[in-house]
Protein backbone atom coordinates (compact mmCIF):
# COMPACT_ATOMS: atom_id res chain seq x y z
CA UNK A 1 0.00 0.00 0.00
CA UNK A 2 1.07 3.60 -0.25
CA UNK A 3 0.39 6.86 1.52
CA UNK A 4 -1.09 10.19 0.53
CA UNK A 5 0.15 13.27 2.36
CA UNK A 6 -1.92 16.41 2.93
CA UNK A 7 -1.22 19.51 5.02
CA UNK A 8 -3.23 19.37 8.27
CA UNK A 9 -4.66 22.83 7.80
CA UNK A 10 -5.07 25.67 5.33
CA UNK A 11 -6.46 29.10 6.13
CA UNK A 12 -7.81 31.63 3.68
CA UNK A 13 -9.85 34.83 3.74
CA UNK A 14 -13.23 34.98 2.02
CA UNK A 15 -12.94 35.68 -1.68
CA UNK A 16 -9.34 34.49 -1.86
CA UNK A 17 -8.08 31.29 -3.49
CA UNK A 18 -7.29 28.21 -1.44
CA UNK A 19 -5.02 25.43 -2.60
CA UNK A 20 -4.89 22.06 -0.86
CA UNK A 21 -2.17 19.67 -1.93
CA UNK A 22 -1.95 15.90 -1.86
CA UNK A 23 1.32 14.06 -2.48
CA UNK A 24 2.04 10.41 -3.19
CA UNK A 25 4.33 8.37 -5.38
CA UNK A 26 1.49 6.65 -7.21
CA UNK A 27 -0.38 9.81 -8.15
CA UNK A 28 1.42 10.07 -11.48
CA UNK A 29 -0.08 6.69 -12.43
CA UNK A 30 -3.50 6.87 -10.80
CA UNK A 31 -6.36 9.31 -10.76
CA UNK A 32 -7.03 11.41 -7.67
CA UNK A 33 -10.38 12.29 -6.13
CA UNK A 34 -11.39 14.89 -3.54
CA UNK A 35 -14.10 14.78 -0.90
CA UNK A 36 -15.50 17.57 1.26
CA UNK A 37 -16.76 16.75 4.74
CA UNK A 38 -18.51 19.19 7.03
CA UNK A 39 -18.89 18.45 10.76
CA UNK A 40 -21.41 15.73 11.48
CA UNK A 41 -22.04 15.04 7.79
CA UNK A 42 -21.05 12.41 5.27
CA UNK A 43 -18.31 13.19 2.75
CA UNK A 44 -19.28 14.60 -0.62
CA UNK A 45 -17.33 14.01 -3.82
CA UNK A 46 -16.18 17.36 -5.22
CA UNK A 47 -13.56 16.32 -7.81
CA UNK A 48 -13.09 13.01 -9.61
CA UNK A 49 -10.49 11.75 -12.11
CA UNK A 50 -8.09 14.57 -11.17
CA UNK A 51 -10.05 17.43 -12.73
CA UNK A 52 -13.71 16.50 -13.26
CA UNK A 53 -16.45 18.13 -11.23
CA UNK A 54 -19.66 16.21 -10.39
CA UNK A 55 -22.94 17.87 -11.23
CA UNK A 56 -24.03 20.26 -8.51
CA UNK A 57 -20.51 21.13 -7.40
CA UNK A 58 -19.77 24.85 -7.85
CA UNK A 59 -17.34 25.89 -10.59
CA UNK A 60 -15.04 27.45 -8.00
CA UNK A 61 -13.83 23.92 -7.18
CA UNK A 62 -11.13 22.63 -9.52
CA UNK A 63 -8.43 20.00 -9.51
CA UNK A 64 -5.02 19.67 -11.12
CA UNK A 65 -2.34 16.99 -11.33
CA UNK A 66 1.36 17.65 -11.77
CA UNK A 67 2.84 14.21 -11.33
CA UNK A 68 3.21 13.11 -7.74
CA UNK A 69 1.41 16.15 -6.33
CA UNK A 70 -2.20 17.04 -7.00
CA UNK A 71 -4.01 20.19 -5.92
CA UNK A 72 -7.59 21.04 -5.08
CA UNK A 73 -8.16 24.72 -5.78
CA UNK A 74 -11.12 26.67 -4.45
CA UNK A 75 -11.39 30.06 -6.13
CA UNK A 76 -13.31 32.84 -4.44
CA UNK A 77 -13.65 30.90 -1.19
CA UNK A 78 -16.94 31.29 0.63
CA UNK A 79 -17.70 30.76 4.30
CA UNK A 80 -19.69 27.63 3.40
CA UNK A 81 -16.51 26.03 2.02
CA UNK A 82 -15.09 25.67 5.51
CA UNK A 83 -14.74 21.91 5.93
CA UNK A 84 -12.32 19.01 5.98
CA UNK A 85 -11.04 17.92 2.57
CA UNK A 86 -9.68 14.47 1.79
CA UNK A 87 -7.83 13.28 -1.26
CA UNK A 88 -8.19 9.67 -2.34
CA UNK A 89 -6.50 7.44 -4.85
CA UNK A 90 -6.15 3.71 -5.42
CA UNK A 91 -3.50 1.23 -6.41
CA UNK A 92 -3.71 -0.90 -9.53
CA UNK A 93 -5.56 -3.68 -7.68
CA UNK A 94 -8.35 -1.36 -6.60
CA UNK A 95 -7.28 -0.86 -3.01
CA UNK A 96 -8.29 2.66 -2.07
CA UNK A 97 -6.27 5.02 0.11
CA UNK A 98 -7.24 8.34 1.69
CA UNK A 99 -5.01 11.21 2.61
CA UNK A 100 -5.01 12.33 6.23
CA UNK A 101 -7.31 15.25 5.53
CA UNK A 102 -6.93 19.04 5.49
CA UNK A 103 -9.02 21.38 7.59
CA UNK A 104 -9.89 24.46 5.56
CA UNK A 105 -10.56 27.50 7.74
CA UNK A 106 -12.20 30.57 6.24
CA UNK A 107 -10.97 33.51 8.29
CA UNK B 1 -32.49 9.31 -6.97
CA UNK B 2 -29.52 7.22 -5.91
CA UNK B 3 -29.67 6.56 -2.19
CA UNK B 4 -27.89 4.44 0.38
CA UNK B 5 -29.64 4.05 3.73
CA UNK B 6 -27.80 2.56 6.67
CA UNK B 7 -29.07 0.86 9.77
CA UNK B 8 -29.32 2.79 13.01
CA UNK B 9 -26.84 3.54 15.74
CA UNK B 10 -25.59 0.65 17.86
CA UNK B 11 -24.30 0.40 21.41
CA UNK B 12 -22.44 -2.82 22.10
CA UNK B 13 -20.14 -4.38 24.69
CA UNK B 14 -16.60 -5.58 23.92
CA UNK B 15 -16.65 -9.13 22.62
CA UNK B 16 -20.14 -8.88 21.14
CA UNK B 17 -20.87 -9.41 17.46
CA UNK B 18 -22.47 -6.86 15.17
CA UNK B 19 -23.73 -6.60 11.60
CA UNK B 20 -24.71 -3.24 10.12
CA UNK B 21 -26.45 -2.76 6.81
CA UNK B 22 -26.57 -0.44 3.83
CA UNK B 23 -29.63 -0.59 1.58
CA UNK B 24 -29.33 0.79 -1.94
CA UNK B 25 -32.01 2.27 -4.17
CA UNK B 26 -32.25 4.27 -7.36
CA UNK B 27 -29.67 2.35 -9.38
CA UNK B 28 -28.85 -1.17 -10.54
CA UNK B 29 -27.33 -2.63 -7.40
CA UNK B 30 -25.32 -5.39 -9.06
CA UNK B 31 -23.58 -3.00 -11.47
CA UNK B 32 -21.68 -0.95 -8.88
CA UNK B 33 -19.36 -1.57 -5.97
CA UNK B 34 -20.33 -0.72 -2.39
CA UNK B 35 -17.52 0.37 -0.10
CA UNK B 36 -17.14 0.88 3.64
CA UNK B 37 -15.23 3.67 5.37
CA UNK B 38 -14.45 4.13 9.06
CA UNK B 39 -14.13 7.45 10.83
CA UNK B 40 -13.09 7.42 14.46
CA UNK B 41 -14.03 10.43 16.59
CA UNK B 42 -12.04 13.46 15.52
CA UNK B 43 -10.03 11.47 12.99
CA UNK B 44 -9.83 11.05 9.23
CA UNK B 45 -11.42 8.67 6.77
CA UNK B 46 -10.11 5.09 6.59
CA UNK B 47 -11.05 2.85 3.69
CA UNK B 48 -12.02 -0.60 4.92
CA UNK B 49 -13.03 -2.54 1.85
CA UNK B 50 -15.44 -2.86 -1.02
CA UNK B 51 -17.76 -5.44 -2.56
CA UNK B 52 -19.16 -5.93 -6.04
CA UNK B 53 -22.62 -7.41 -5.46
CA UNK B 54 -22.81 -8.71 -9.02
CA UNK B 55 -20.27 -11.45 -8.35
CA UNK B 56 -19.42 -10.91 -4.65
CA UNK B 57 -15.86 -9.90 -5.46
CA UNK B 58 -14.43 -8.28 -2.31
CA UNK B 59 -11.31 -6.24 -1.71
CA UNK B 60 -10.15 -5.48 1.84
CA UNK B 61 -7.72 -2.90 3.10
CA UNK B 62 -4.73 -4.72 4.60
CA UNK B 63 -5.52 -2.85 7.83
CA UNK B 64 -8.97 -4.42 8.07
CA UNK B 65 -8.42 -7.85 6.49
CA UNK B 66 -9.44 -10.45 9.05
CA UNK B 67 -10.96 -7.84 11.36
CA UNK B 68 -14.31 -7.40 9.60
CA UNK B 69 -16.42 -9.20 7.02
CA UNK B 70 -18.09 -7.49 4.09
CA UNK B 71 -20.99 -9.15 2.32
CA UNK B 72 -24.04 -8.36 0.22
CA UNK B 73 -27.47 -9.79 -0.54
CA UNK B 74 -28.40 -8.73 -4.04
CA UNK B 75 -31.95 -10.01 -3.67
CA UNK B 76 -32.64 -7.19 -1.22
CA UNK B 77 -30.08 -4.70 -2.56
CA UNK B 78 -28.23 -4.56 0.74
CA UNK B 79 -24.56 -4.62 1.72
CA UNK B 80 -23.29 -5.54 5.17
CA UNK B 81 -20.34 -4.95 7.45
CA UNK B 82 -19.89 -7.29 10.38
CA UNK B 83 -17.68 -7.99 13.35
CA UNK B 84 -17.49 -11.27 15.25
CA UNK B 85 -15.96 -9.78 18.38
CA UNK B 86 -16.00 -6.03 18.89
CA UNK B 87 -13.25 -4.08 20.60
CA UNK B 88 -13.49 -0.67 22.20
CA UNK B 89 -11.33 0.66 19.37
CA UNK B 90 -14.06 -0.28 16.87
CA UNK B 91 -16.17 2.61 18.14
CA UNK B 92 -16.58 4.94 15.15
CA UNK B 93 -18.91 6.16 12.45
CA UNK B 94 -19.08 3.76 9.53
CA UNK B 95 -20.07 5.03 6.10
CA UNK B 96 -21.11 3.00 3.10
CA UNK B 97 -20.80 4.49 -0.36
CA UNK B 98 -21.38 3.49 -3.97
CA UNK B 99 -18.14 2.72 -5.76
CA UNK B 100 -17.31 3.53 -9.36
CA UNK B 101 -14.54 1.67 -11.15
CA UNK B 102 -13.35 1.17 -14.69
CA UNK B 103 -10.67 2.10 -17.16
CA UNK B 104 -10.19 5.01 -19.53
CA UNK B 105 -6.77 6.71 -19.67
CA UNK B 106 -6.12 5.14 -16.29
CA UNK B 107 -8.02 2.87 -14.00
CA UNK B 108 -10.45 4.72 -11.78
CA UNK B 109 -11.80 3.89 -8.35
CA UNK B 110 -13.88 6.30 -6.32
CA UNK B 111 -17.06 6.59 -4.27
CA UNK B 112 -19.65 8.94 -5.68
CA UNK B 113 -22.69 8.63 -3.39
CA UNK B 114 -22.37 8.28 0.37
CA UNK B 115 -24.78 7.33 3.08
CA UNK B 116 -25.13 9.29 6.31
CA UNK B 117 -23.26 6.76 8.42
CA UNK B 118 -23.89 4.40 11.33
CA UNK B 119 -22.46 5.26 14.73
CA UNK B 120 -21.10 2.26 16.59
CA UNK B 121 -20.29 2.67 20.29
CA UNK B 122 -18.44 -0.11 22.06
CA UNK B 123 -18.39 0.27 25.82
CA UNK B 124 -18.39 -2.01 28.84
Describe this entry's structure for a reader.
The complex is a heterodimer of chains A (107) and B (124). Chain A is mainly β and 107 residues long. Chain A contains no helices and nine strands. In chain A, the strands form two sheets. In chain A, strands 1, 3, 4, 7, 8 and 9 form a six-stranded mixed sheet that branches. A three-stranded antiparallel sheet of chain A has the order 2-6-5, with no helix packed on it. Chain A is globular and about 40 Å long. Chain B has 124 residues and is mostly beta strands. The radius of gyration of chain B is 14 Å and the shape is globular. The relative contact order of chain B is 0.30. The model of chain B has no long low-confidence stretch (mean pLDDT 96). The interface between A and B is medium-sized, with 29 and 26 residues.
Question: What keywords describe this structure?
Answer:
heterodimer; A: mainly beta; 6-stranded mixed sheet; 3-stranded antiparallel sheet; B: 124 residues; mainly beta; 7-stranded mixed sheet; 4-stranded antiparallel sheet; 11 strands; globular
The count of DSSP E runs of length 2 or more, i.e. the number of strands of chain A, is 9
| Oligomer description | heterodimer
Fraction of helical residues of chain B: under 10%
Structural class by helix and strand composition of chain B: mainly beta
- DSSP summary: helix tally of chain A: 0
Q: The biggest beta sheet of chain A, please? A: 6 strands, mixed
Distance between the termini of chain A: 36 Å
Q: Extract low-pLDDT stretches of chain A.
A: none
Total helical elements of chain B: 0
State the order of secondary-structure elements of chain A, H for helix, E for strand. EEEEEEEEE
Topology pattern of chain B, helix = H, strand = E: EEEEEEEEEEE
| Unreliable stretches covering 5 or more consecutive residues of chain B | none
Judged by helices, strands and strand pairing, the structural class of chain A is mainly beta
Amino acid sequence: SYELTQPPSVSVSPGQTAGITCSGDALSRQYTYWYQQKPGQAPILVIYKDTERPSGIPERFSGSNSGTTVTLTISGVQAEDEADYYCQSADSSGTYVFGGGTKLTVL
Amino acid sequence: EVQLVQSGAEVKKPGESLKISCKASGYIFIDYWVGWVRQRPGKGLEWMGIIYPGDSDIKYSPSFQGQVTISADKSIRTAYLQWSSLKASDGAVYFCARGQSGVDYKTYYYMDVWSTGTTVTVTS
